[in-house]
Write a structure and sequence with these properties.
Ubiquitin-like (UB roll), elongated, 198 residues, Helix Hairpins, 2 domains, 6 helices, two-stranded antiparallel ribbon, 4-stranded mixed beta sheet, 43% helix, alpha+beta
Length: 198
């Protein structure tokens, strides 16, 4: 596989959303380390050295699977990311588009929400409701989750689809604030759901 090419491009893809997160390069040693540690390792062409994604930022990528194409010159690495994959703090390195009006997957809204909540936690913003919740602590956050779940029940009982959508959105937001307060990445929830699937 590495006979003709000393470096092989690796496409990194979110295991759950299937979104492409980044493109990097692997040599034989980084591939070995990736398989052994179950986290992504690459070879930096600019620095001329191996690097473990997340070693500096904490945004590690847990490897689920590694596939290679028919010509054996490209890897497709499925990962569960812990935080943004891009050095700009974006979920994916491919956050810009050349085609106006193209639609993103709806699941991305959850990832964007998690990133925004993380940003508020790390860099508080004056007047932010999210920062207000963090400053009040877990009891306040849990109280809001209880209120929102009750409002979902009332909306469903009233057979109001519009209200159910609105209140469920509120519930999910407060739930994700709670997850961040407890330092639980949303990917852990998805992983648990995947393990339960029949």
């Amino acid at each position: 596989m590495f006979k003709e090419n000393t470096l092989i491009p690796a496409i990194i893809q979110d295991f759950y959303t299937k979104e492409v997160l980044m493109l990097a390069y692997m040599n034989e040693e980084s591939l070995r380390l990736t398989k052994e540690t179950k986290t992504t390792w690459f070879y930096s062409r600019s620095r001329k050295e191996l690097w473990n994604k997340g070693a500096t930022s904490g945004n590690y990528q847990t490897v689920v699977n590694i596939k290679y194409d028919c010509d054996e010159d490209t890897f497709l690495v499925s990962v569960i990311p812990k935080g943004p994959s891009c050095h700009t703090n974006n979920y994916s390195c491919f956050y810009r588009t050349l085609l106006e009006g193209s639609e993103e997957g709806s699941f991305k809204a959850l990832i964007d929400l998690e990133n925004t909540i993380r940003e508020r936690k790390c860099n508080p913003k004056e007047g932010s409701y999210t920062n207000y919740l963090f400053s009040e602590g877990v009891d306040k956050i849990l109280k809001k989750i209880g209120e929102e779940s009750a409002e979902i029940i009332i909306a469903a009982k009233n057979n109001s689809k519009t209200e159910v959508i609105y209140e469920t959105s509120d519930f999910i937001y407060h739930m994700m604030v709670m997850l961040k307060e407890m330092d639980i990445p949303f990917s852990d929830i998805l992983n648990n759901l995947s393990e339960r699937a029949e």
